[in-house]
Amino acid sequence: MLALFVVAIRAESLNGETPITAVDLQQRFPPAFAALSDAERAFLAKDQPTHEESTQFLWRYEAILVLQWVLGLQDALPFPDAICDVSSISRTAIERGTEGLRKQPVMRSPAEILDALDLHYRMHWATRQAILKKYAPPANLDDGVLQERHYALNWLVRFEDRDWDDVDTPT
Question: Is 62:84 a contact under the CB 8 Å cutoff?
Fold first, then answer.
C-alpha cells in the first residue's frame, strides 16, 4: 500500500508547482521503496514522466483505497460512481506512518475480499459493456474507478498468479 502511495503522491505532485522528488519520498517512506514494482521504480526514476504515465499512477489512489479497506483502515468501499477521497486516503497513510501500518492487526476475511471482488467484477463488466455498446454506464458507475479496484482485488487473490505489474482484469 505504501509503494502505491509514494507513486500516487509523486504523480499528483507533478501537476503542481513543486513536484515531490523520489529522494524526498524515500526519506519519508523508506519501506515503500523495497516493495516497488519494476514499473513503479521506473516511473519514480524519471525526472519528467509523460502526462499519460503520471495519470496512470495518479489512478493508484483507487487501488490504495482497496488495500486500506482490506487492512481495516477504511470502514467500507464507497459505491464506485465517483473517484475516491484522496485527502482521506493520504491522511490515513501519513497518520499511520510505516510503523503504524506494520502494527495494524485487523484484516478483512477472505470471504469479504472475495465478495468485494465478485461485486466489482460484475460492476466492471457492466461498465465495459456500456462502453462497447456506446451507452451510459448503469447507476453512473465509473469505469476508471472500477478498473483500479478490480486490479487491486485481482492482485490480492493472486488471480492467474500474476505480479502487480502484470495483473489482468478480464470481464
Answer: yes
Contact 150, 124 (CB under 8 A): yes
Burial class (CB within 10 angstroms; exposed 0-12, middle 13-18, buried 19+) of 85: middle
Give residue 83's pLDDT band: very low, low, confident or very high (50, 70, 90). Answer: very high
What's residue 105's pLDDT? 66
The C-alpha cell at 70 is 482490506
pTM to 2 decimal places = 0.94
Which amino acid appears at position 133 of this protein?
Answer: K
Residue 55: the pLDDT is 96
